[in-house]
Amino acid sequence: MNDSVAPDLRTVPDELVTTAAVPRHSRPYARSTGPPRRVNPRDAVELQLLQIWRDVLGVDGIGVTDDFFDVGGSSVYALVIVGLIRQRFRRRLALDVFFSAGTIEALAGLLRGGRRAARTCVVPIKVGGPRRPLFAVHTLAGTVMHYAPLANALGTDQPFYGLQATGIAGGALQRTVRAMARRYVSDMRAVQAEGPYQVCGYSAGGAIAWEMACQLAEAGQPTSALILIDAHPYSELPLDDSYWIDLLAHRFLGFCREAVDIARLPTDEVRIASLVEIAHRVCRVPPDYGPDEVRRIVRQHMSIAEALNVYRPRPYRGPALLIRTDAHPDGPDETRGWPAVDGGMRVVRSGADHFNVMGETQAPLIADAMRPHLHTEP
User: Fold this and answer.
1) Which of 50-59, 110-119, 346-355 has the lowest mean pLDDT?
2) Which of 70, 145, 230, 262 sees the fewest Cβ atoms within 10 Å?
3) Shared-domain flag, residues 318 and 200
4) What is the dihedral of CA 272, 294, 69, 111, to 10 degrees?
5) Considering 113, 146, 165, which residue would you say is the last residue of a domain?
6) In a domain, 211, yes or no
7) Are residues 169 and 316 in the same domain?
8) CA nearest neighbour of 140 among 167, 121, 160, 120
9) What tens digit of pLDDT does each residue of 171-185 get?
């Protein structure tokens, strides 16, 4: 592949990023505002991690105390790096490790200590701050890294936690929206024992957030803010493997010049083999990335899709905010058919489309729409 025309995969919507395709070209130190104060590696573990970061990110001048996201990291690069760590150190790390241990120094501490993360769905994206925490539910991909721009835009005083799918957290996949919501409420209450709670969900996460608010109300726990970001109450998602394989190929390999039209290949197994072969040939994916990883990703998507297709939102006793795009007009009902809520549903329109509404450009605008509905007291 010609390095001069390799795409910048930071443009891939993080909401759909569940596999990795990183072009082989270098990028500038994206967010530097002055000369960095670099801390060099102090042992072999930090040195090996530094080599991995430099190789994947294509950035020189990284120090062991530099934050992953400040040197150009994204969910795409995180997937590649955790794959290389698995190969080099024989340790499996979840993607959310870059929120809690986002420097080489912190990652090295985890690898030296051999600490295993607890199987919780809660991902601490931004901790600390005097305000009441906000909990954000995953999308079809099951991950929450796409919430990082929004968490940053809401400011340092707003604690922000993601709720990732149980399959991502290392447990069994939940098969219904009610089961997902029940698990996420339980894990959320381990962080914040009593309400009022603040919950939001983007895209597929909206229906799960709605059900969480309903279950909290049944338990006598109020939800002071329920925020739906470009979410629909009802889903009719395809449930065949071919659709999701083709979607993955389009979203990721479609950004590589040498990608073929995988949808035209005769069988799912051939499509998967072609996807993996192209990923290894033209993109920087871990050496052990293979068909089983693609099948796991497809299962994750389909499990959540199946649950959403049969879910029917029930009445919710409280206020709600719907932030919606206009990419797909929904007729005269600007609430998109969400059930009536006792506290009323306010609708705010965004000029973005569905796939960039959570990006760095739009996140400050979404944060501005959310702030009047978020509470300052803990």
Assistant:
1) 110-119
2) 70
3) yes
4) -130
5) 113
6) yes
7) yes
8) 167
9) 778 889 999 999 999
User: Any idea what DSSP says for residue 144?
Assistant: -
346-372 pLDDT per residue, tens? 999 988 888 888 888 999 999 999 999
CA 190 to each of CA 195, 219, 277, 342: distance values in angstroms, whole numbers, following the listed order: 12, 15, 43, 28
b/e 110-136 (16+ beta carbons within 10 angstroms → b) = bbeeeeeeeebbbbbbbeeeebbbbbb
Q: What is the pLDDT of residue 93?
A: 82
Tokens representing residue 253 in the block: 């390999």
Among 58, 85, 113, which residue terminates a domain?
A: 113
Residues 95, 82: contact at Cβ < 8 Å?
Answer: yes
What's phi and psi for 347, nearest 5 deg? -115, 130
pLDDT, tens digit, 9 for 90 and up, residues 227-246: 999 999 999 898 888 888 88
The closest of 317, 361, 332, 358 to 230, measured between CA atoms, is: 358
Residues 185-203 as b/e (b if ≥16 CB within 10 A, e otherwise) read bebbbeebeebebbbbbbb
The residue among 51, 64, 53, 61 whose CA lies nearest residue 28 is: 61
- Say if residues 13 and 355 touch (Cβ distance below 8 Å): yes
Pairing of strands 320-325, 223-229: parallel
Within-domain flag for 269: no
pLDDT digits over 78-90, tens only? 878 888 888 888 8
Q: Determine which helix (DSSP H) or strand (DSSP E) holds 134, and give its type and residue range.
A: strand 134-137
pTM for the structure as a whole: 0.77
162, 136 Cβ separation under 8 angstroms: yes
| Residue 358, both tokens | 């959570």
Q: Is 244 helix (H, G, I), strand (E, B) or coil?
A: helix
Residues 6+ apart with CB under 8 A from 320: 210, 213, 226, 227, 228, 338, 341, 343, 344, 345, 346
**What pLDDT, in 10s, does the model give residues 13-51?**
333 333 333 333 323 333 444 445 688 888 889 999 999
Structural domain harbouring 219: 122-234+311-373
